[in-house]
Design goal:
binds guanosine-5'-diphosphate, globular, alpha/beta, disordered N terminus, binds magnesium ion
């Protein structure tokens, strides 16, 4: 075989060329490395978020796909900050870092600098902080304060949870009929409510807001449960009066059979647990819901009893929506003390990296109403659900 030989004289030139190429490549690698760990691959909106707070840039690639007009929303006190942080982190890690939706925080007092600084550092989307107008966090003028005080004393004696609390009642009224009217919520069509101390157990790999829109859903829940009857003694009678006065607001294909076992005569106490809600703001902005909230508010049960936003929202969703517009998120995995939702189907848990114990799952237990939800809607329950009932 003929040997290839570089002619003498050209040998030095080839060596020099080789060294130059190696040098250039090294420079290129160093240069690229620097820019990679700098700002070019990082997200989102630069270092300044929410106006004045400067935080480290988040380490996820900026999401550039289409997004819905949606936000997280959290009502909180400044003192809730450190029980809220793990909740935000969990939602960000399991879902939001992929889509970077905004987060609206609402409070009846000004949020502290610390609250804003720390939460802003946790959220991948924009953060916004709203003050609730004083007149929305007080007794409405038509409420007899003495009568309301009597109820609170009685409920305290009866050992009803939050029975003697005034702020809890302001909170329930605000979440029922006012949060979606806050100016910061005007930018959005959809919201996901998050509370302190909650946790998501499973990865969510798709945009839930897009899912809601694409599948014509208006209200979605994880848990359903029965309400303490002592807190809503006249809520159903007041609702029946409303239905008689406003039959035009009832959806044709409504889900009355989820909330009543006797065709509307009595309320069976089933409601969606509203500490988790993903819903369309249009539902609450509708004429039907505005009329319903005003009716309830005039009746005074937020103060003369202790009506919760959960039964109020649930009854409204069941009556004013087509049943197909209400959705159960069965594979998120969710915790709000003291209950766990943990998908009972192992395939679901492994596919979504759920870090929960299916033995803790509450979904199919007798005190939950979710079995009823599946039954009245003719839906198929997940594999192995009956092993977790009881
Ligand atoms: N700003 C403010 N938020 C409150 C107040 N009371 C409750 N919240 C918030 O309202 C939501 C429900 O309250 P929480 O204590 O979790 O009630 P529970 O889930 O029914 O036990 C949470 O997001 C709280 O942070 C209050 O007095 N002021
Ligand atoms: Mg809570």
């Amino acid at each position: 075989m003929a040997e290839f030989k570089i002619p003498q004289g050209k040998e030095r030139f080839v060596k020099l060329l080789g060294l130059t190429v190696i040098g250039l490549l090294t420079l290129l690698v160093i240069f690229n490395g620097t820019s990679f760990s700098g700002s070019s691959s990082l997200s989102s909106g630069g270092a300044i978020k929410s106006g004045k707070y400067k935080v480290d840039e988040i380490k996820y690639p900026k999401y550039t796909g289409k997004k819905e007009k949606a936000t997280f929303v959290t009502l909180a006190r400044n003192s809730d900050l450190y029980s809220l942080l793990p909740a935000i982190k969990s939602v960000e890690d399991r879902f939001n870092h992929k889509f970077q939706y905004d987060w609206v925080f609402l409070n009846d007092e000004e949020f502290t600098e610390e609250f804003q600084r720390v939460t802003t550092s946790m959220v991948s989307g924009k953060t916004k902080y709203g003050l609730i107008p004083k007149e929305q966090w007080t007794f409405p003028p038509h409420i007899d304060k003495e009568k309301a005080a009597e109820t609170r004393n009685q409920m305290k004696e009866d050992g009803i949870i939050y029975g003697d609390s005034i702020p809890y009642r302001f909170m329930c009224r605000y979440e029922s009929g006012l949060f979606y009217r806050h100016p910061l919520m005007e930018d959005y069509d959809w919201y996901w409510r998050v509370e302190p101390d909650i946790k998501l157990y499973c990865d969510i790999d798709y945009d839930v807001f897009k899912f809601m829109k694409d599948y014509y859903k208006k209200y979605a829940f994880t848990f359903s449960i029965k309400e303490y009857v002592g807190t809503i003694k006249t809520l159903w009678d007041t609702t029946k009066e409303f239905m008689t006065a406003h039959p035009e607001h009832l959806a044709k294909n409504n889900m009355l059979d989820f909330i009543s076992d006797d065709d509307g005569d009595t309320y069976n106490l089933c409601h969606f647990w509203s500490n988790f809600e993903i819903a369309s703001l249009d539902l609450w902005r509708s004429k039907a819901y505005s009329d319903y909230f005003d009716w309830l508010d005039q009746a005074g049960g937020f103060f003369y009893e202790r009506w919760g936003d959960a039964p109020v929202h649930s009854i409204a969703a069941a009556l004013f929506l087509d049943r197909s517009e209400i959705h159960h998120f069965d594979s998120m995995g969710y915790y709000h003390p003291p209950f766990h939702q943990c998908p009972v189907d192992e395939d679901v848990r492994l596919n979504h990296k759920c870090d929960c114990n299916p033995k803790d799952d509450f979904t199919w237990k007798s005190y939950s109403c979710t079995t009823k939800f599946y039954t009245v809607n003719g839906m198929t329950k997940p594999k192995g659900w009956h092993l977790h009932a009881g």
